[in-house]
Amino acid sequence: MQEQDDLRYFLNRKQKFDVRAVLILLHQGEVFVRQENSKQELYILPGGAVKFNEESQSAAEREAYEELGLTDLKLEFAGILENFWKLKRIEYQQLNLIYRQEVNDEVYHQLQHLDYQKFDLPPNSDLKWVRVDQIEDTLHPKGIARICYPKAKVQHLINLQKFNF
């Protein structure tokens, strides 16, 4: 959803650009994801638009609070992913600024039992912990799973997958 000051812009009727802060929350080989499409296995990571004049880490922390109720995170910069795709005749270019944290048991259980109705999430959101190695092909944007490991090096990834969702 577009909010005031979001770095999301239509360049024209057929091209859109945005900047997104992404959260990779890890716990013992699992990553916290949102199932994007109930008809097929398609997962995305929590996060949202960076706002004008907002640092990307601050955006990631804000999104963690707005979407998941989390505070006091110790996020580390994990990388950037340039994502290109086409949806309903509109071409998108998105910069994903990715932050990662291995969470403790308390946060893990908090997220397992979170009442998602209270947070800024799309209707019918299905959030869950899944093993990273089981969703490498269904986690979007493609390639982001390479960063979903606690000791993964900071990476610059590019997804040029030009397909329609």
Structure notes:
There is one protein chain. With 165 residues, this protein is mainly beta. 13% of the residues lie in helices and 41% in strands. It has two helices and ten strands. Strands 1, 2, 3, 4, 5, 6, 7, 8, 9 and 10 form a ten-stranded mixed β-sheet that branches. A hairpin with a 2-residue loop joins strand 6 and strand 7 (90-102).
Number of separate strands: 10
Whole-angstrom Rg? 15 Å
Q: Helix proportion of residues, in percent?
A: 10-25%
Q: What are the low-pLDDT stretches, counting only 5+ consecutive residues below 50?
A: none
Overall mean pLDDT score? Answer: 90
| First-last Cα distance | 18 Å
The major β-sheet equals: 10 strands, mixed
Provide a count of the helices.
Answer: 2
The helix/strand series, from N terminus to C terminus, equals EEEEEHEEHEEE
Derived structural class: mainly beta
General shape: globular
The proportion of residues in beta strands is 35-45%
